[in-house]
Automatic annotation (TrEMBL):
InterPro entries: ATP-dep_Helicase, DEAD/DEAH_box_helicase_dom, DNA/RNA_helicase_DEAH_CS, Helicase_ATP-bd, Helicase_C-like, Lhr-like, Lhr-like_DEAD/DEAH_assoc, Lhr_WH_dom. It comes from the Archaea. The lineage of its organism: Archaea, Methanobacteriati, Methanobacteriota, Stenosarchaea group, Halobacteria. It comes from Saliphagus infecundisoli. This is DEAD/DEAH box helicase. GO terms for molecular function: ATP binding; catalytic activity, acting on DNA; DNA binding; helicase activity; hydrolase activity. GO terms for biological process: DNA repair. Keywords: ATP-binding, DNA damage, DNA repair, DNA-binding, Helicase, Hydrolase, Isomerase, Nucleotide-binding. Residues 253-398 form the Helicase C-terminal domain.
Length: 941
């Protein structure tokens, strides 16, 4: 009689069972026990289990079994994976099974050679591992389409990752196009833990019946939250690392955790943090590698292999390691700072362990009270299985625009009704109206991507269809990047965003990549390359990469508010901070020191007799021009409510309102005359049903919408991909494309990914009904000042000169200047205005006589340093000395004035010495001088 835990293998044929014995699989894993029975029965199945728990074999054993008993004529199974990096692992793991069972397993992606692709078209492998984008290309190839007719199984790996992206929406339509070729096929999804398994299953199958087999991950995860205590060693370490003692304590604590284990993954939330932390470990000569998506493929593979071989003890990584890249067994996972989301924590911590019935262990290293309370809430929710839903892109129109040309290219002349029926079988498009579909086809027709004959309701190819299809296989937006090459070896190290190169990079500048310091030797804009050489310097700039912020969901932010409320009640009842910490330690996975550090901020709030912001109390505070609304709503709702407040306050004042948000605060920079009463009035009087309209009106003037619109328009063929928004002013772009499907889609995407207007509306309803309290405070509070900067965006009412002034201010702050000591002549630095101290001082001689010169003024520097001067050099030197005198008297204010266009020392002195009431007037005078210079420039040139 067969044991119960082996019954799953009994569903498989003799050849596969023999292979299992040969491979050493004597007992099924938990996912295999649960999922092999429905898979072997041919049912659509979603398997939810942690990475490393045998999901791949769970899916593929029944597939191999079926294909070995009935070999296909063309492709038998497709294994679709979102990352090409996974293909290397999949190939290693699947080829063995294929060889044993006499089935061919092959890989196809963007880097596959033309020769190999031709072989696959002529003689398709039984199993093909590929990406969503390569499947798009395969659906249009004539020979490949013939091979795809025999597909009987499609496995979609990391389906949760795809379900929440436009790549997934594209794949969902692609699978329906594949169904047109092959008829029905079994769909198998492999997923990490998600909050809405049935929705992900519907996404996978197009709403068809699906078995969901889920492993309870939370019960097998052990998470500890720790804020490191600063020790005497950290004080010494901070000097060595050129950093603050608290940061040194984080480095030291992580170092010690890594030393205790054999192999550790250290997850961080951004690539910048990975590089900054990596450079600190490198300073200590620790065997810790850096791994993220902006490193070159060769650099990533090298560090993966070294980690697997045990040459390095830990990998410092971003979400690049969340998915199933094989780096061997992981003992422990460290998460540096809050992971922001429950799903992300489970996926990251879940990479540890995975021997039979082994618990995955991890530590969240926190840095400040917000961080600690957030990590505690996430850790508790993870254990309880309270995971966020996958945010499926419902009805993204640019994906439809992307799919229609491919569909027509592969099918030829196609009735509109047929195309509509195929697209709307995909789950994200089940509610797309025929009228909306027609509008998309009409737009494609106007852009000459397809021919839409409205009289006969038919879609045809045009001369541009083929070019469009192969130029738009991916829904990943194009971001301009520069390749970084080591000038010595010529090898590529990684990539840099264009924004970083434009704003920071210049020959001689130093930055960090791969945890190492590099000095820029040359920038080639035509080839998009930055050539660098390695240096030893602990003070490099960390590159900036686009799209890094992980939003904190409303339920997590709400639980942080609940925690603050619980502590508030105990502290006001007379409990000591230590007592409150001990009470929390019984319910949350943290020690008393960590909890005590977080509670200290709350104690100061109570001692000052300030109301505590909680999940059901908002606190409004003000100091100077800064008004803060403490609101535990999460990133997206705070962003929506903040935009509503800034737009309405901006209308009242005719000035720009600075907006900065985090999950717990909305910070407004307001002009004089705006009071907390004005903010209260907006909260109490604004119709909750109007929030979306108000936010949408504000977006119509924003760079954010113009940026999205440029990307979406490329998918419709309305803009060439190389044009982007830079070739067309944002105002013209927004005006030209309003009332088009592209505009609708750009708005939909922003609301989907960045703004929760429904939650913001409910908050206004709660305030107005009295269910939510709004308390006010004069001055700033302990909790209110505890936030972290998340970037300021100015939202400008029409005709408001304040927005122009802010533009001038920001432009000058980003301008570069040469600072030259006119006393010793030795010290010279080229830097951005924003980085200059309030009173520049020479680090060589201590003098404050520092000339501020335009960045191209190298001749002036030579003139000042020249021993003997001609008349022209004497004149230059005098100008430099006048500049230095101004800087000595007025500090950074003088530097700002002289950074303006056409403003020399004489005009700068006139601007500085003018009496005025506000800083805005200072920049208004600078702007007036710049306009005067522009008007008269022809006389000077």
């Amino acid at each position: 009689m067969m044991r119960g835990d082996q019954a799953a293998f009994a569903r498989l044929g003799e050849a596969v069972r023999e292979a299992l014995s040969e491979r050493g699989f004597s007992t099924p894993t938990a996912p295999q026990r649960l999922a092999i029975p429905p898979l072997a029965a041919g049912e659509h199945t979603l398997v939810i289990a942690p990475t490393g728990s045998g999901k791949t074999e769970t899916a593929m054993l029944p597939v191999f079994d079926d294909l070995s008993e009935d070999p296909p004529e063309g492709f038998g199974a497709l294994y679709v994976t979102p990352l090409r990096a996974l293909n290397r692992d999949m190939r290693d793991r699947l080829e063995w099974w294929g060889e044993y069972l006499d089935l061919e397993v092959d890989v196809r992606h963007g880097d596959t050679t033309q020769y190999r692709r031709g072989k696959q078209a002529e003689d398709p492998p039984d199993v093909l591992v590929t990406t969503p984008e390569t499947l798009q290309a395969m659906l249009t190839g004539e020979r490949l389409r013939e091979g795809l007719e025999s597909v009987s199984h499609v496995v979609v790996d990391e389906v949760h990752e795809l379900a929440a992206s436009k790549r997934g929406a594209q794949l969902s339509v692609g699978l329906e196009r594949l169904r047109e070729l092959s008829g029905g096929f079994q769909r198998i999804g492999l997923s990490a833990t998600v909050g809405d398994p049935s929705e992900v299953a519907n996404f996978l199958t197009g709403g068809r019946p699906c078995e969901v087999r889920e492993i309870d991950v939370g019960s097998d995860v052990s998470v500890t939250v720790r804020e490191p205590e600063i020790t005497d060693e950290d004080e010494a370490l901070s000097g060595q690392l050129m950093t603050e003692p608290d940061t040194a304590s984080h480095v030291r604590y992580i170092r010690d955790l890594v030393a205790e284990k054999e192999s550790t993954l250290i997850f961080v939330n951004t690539r910048q943090t990975a590089e900054a932390l990596g450079s600190r470990f490198r300073e200590l000569d620790l065997p810790i590698g850096v791994h993220h998506g902006s490193l070159s493929k060769e650099a990533r593979i090298d560090v993966e292999d070294r980690f697997k071989e045990g040459e390095i003890d830990a990998l410092l990584c971003t979400s690049s390691m969340e998915l199933g890249i094989d780096v061997g067994r992981i003992d422990h996972v460290i998460q540096y700072k809050s992971p922001r989301q429950v799903a992300r924590l489970l996926q990251r911590i879940g990479r540890a362990g995975h021997r039979s019935d082994e618990v995955s262990e991890g530590t969240i290293v926190t840095t400040r009270p917000d961080d600690t309370l957030e990590a505690l809430a996430i850790a508790r929710r993870a254990r309880a299985g309270e995971v966020e839903p996958a945010a499926i892109h419902e009805g993204s129109l640019d994906v439809v625009a992307n799919q229609v040309p491919g569909l027509v290219q592969s099918r030829g002349s196609t009735p509109l009704e047929t195309a509509y029926e195929i697209v709307t079988r995909a789950y994200p498009y089940r509610e797309l109206s025929e009228e909306g579909f027609r509008e998309i086809c009409s737009e494609l027709h106007r852009n000459q991507v397809v021919w839409f004959d409205e009289g006969e309701d038919r879609l045809e190819t045009t001369g541009g269809t083929w070019q469009y299809v192969y130029g738009n296989l991916s829904m990943i937006p194009d971001e301009e990047t520069y390749e970084v090459h080591d000038i010595a070896g010529g090898s590529q190290i990684g990539t840099l965003d264009e924004r970083f190169v434009v704003n920071f990079a210049a020959p001689g500048e130093v930055f960090i990549q791969r945890g190492e310091m590099w000095r820029i030797s040359e920038i080639n804009d035509d080839e998009g390359k930055v050539k660098v050489s390695p240096i030893e310097d602990p003070a490099g700039e960390v590159p900036s990469w686009i799209g890094q912020e992980i939003p904190v969901p409303a339920p997590v932010a709400g639980e942080v508010g609940e925690l603050r409320g619980v502590c508030d009640a105990q502290l006001r009842a007379g409990a000591e901070g230590g007592s409150v910490a001990r009470d929390l330690a019984g319910r949350y996975p943290a020690d008393e020191y960590t909890l005590g550090e977080a509670i200290d901020e709350l104690s100061r709030q109570v001692e000052a007799n300030h109301p505590m912001p909680t999940d059901d109390r908002l606190v409004l505070e003000r100091e100077g021009r800064t008004i803060v609304l403490n609101a535990h709503l999460g990133h997206m709702a705070n962003e929506a409510l903040g935009r509503t407040l800034s737009a309405l306050l901006g209308q009242r004042t005719g000035s720009s309102i600075g907006l900065e948000t985090d999950p717990y605060r909305i910070e407004l920079e307001v002009p004089g005359g705006v009071s907390t009463t004005d903010v209260l009035d907006v909260l109490r009087e604004t119709d909750p049903d109007h929030v979306r309209t108000i936010v949408e009106l504000g977006l119509k003037r924003s760079d954010a919408l113009a940026f999205r619109l440029a990307q979406v328009s490329a998918s419709f063929g309305a803009l060439k991909r190389w044009e982007g928004s830079g070739r067309l002013s944002n105002d013209r772009l927004l005006a030209a494309l309003e009332d088009t499907p592209m505009y609708d889609e750009a708005l939909r995407e922003i609301f989907h990914e960045d703004l929760d207007v429904e939650h913001a509306s409910r908050v206004l309803e709660g305030i107005q009904s009295g269910d939510l309290e709004v308390a006010t405070v004069g001055g700033r509070t302990a909790v209110g000042t505890g936030g972290m900067s998340a970037g300021t965006e100015l939202l400008s009412p029409e005709n408001a000169d304040a927005s122009v002034i802010e533009t001038v201010r920001e432009r000058i702050r980003d301008d570069r200047m040469i600072l030259l000591c006119t006393h010793c002549h030795d010290w010279k630095v080229r830097t951005k205005v924003r980085r200059i101290q309030e009173q520049p001082t020479c680090p060589e001689c201590g003098s404050t006589r520092i000339a501020a010169l335009n960045p191209w003024a190298d001749e002036v520097v030579k003139a000042v340093r020249a021993a003997e001067k001609d008349d022209e050099q004497r004149e230059m030197t005098e100008r430099a000395f006048r500049s230095a005198s101004l800087v000595q008297s007025h500090g950074k204010r003088a530097v700002i004035a002289m950074a303006a266009r056409g403003v020399g020392p004489h005009n700068a002195a006139r601007i500085i010495n003018k009496l005025r009431e506000s800083e805005d007037d200072f920049y208004r005078d600078i702007l007036a001088q710049e306009r005067e210079y522009a008007r008269t420039q022809s006389f000077w040139d």
